[in-house]
Amino acid sequence: MRISEWLNQKEKEGVDVSQIELPKDLAYDRDPDETVFFEEHNPCGVLCNKNHPFSKIERFGRWYVCKGQNKKAGIHSSEGKWRLITRDKEEALQMAKAHME
To answer: Which helix (H) or strand (E) segment is 10 a member of?
Structure first.
């Protein structure tokens, strides 16, 4: 089953999919149709393998799956993780950019 099909099914069941966690077998087995947005705040450089704030939007069919770590949480923090699933591209972009301010 594709991620977009699974989300459509959950929506038909009346589930609020905006904050739903994708099943691990779906989340890691599927490549997105498109990566719409990616930004990372990494002042340490490419050799640092610790946590850095980021925002990412991937499109699966008509769904935009957004996730990241809030920049306000700080560098190397494990706090401030967020996610959003929506069909509205503008909402997804606003959310992702807001978390990087």
So the answer is: helix 3-12
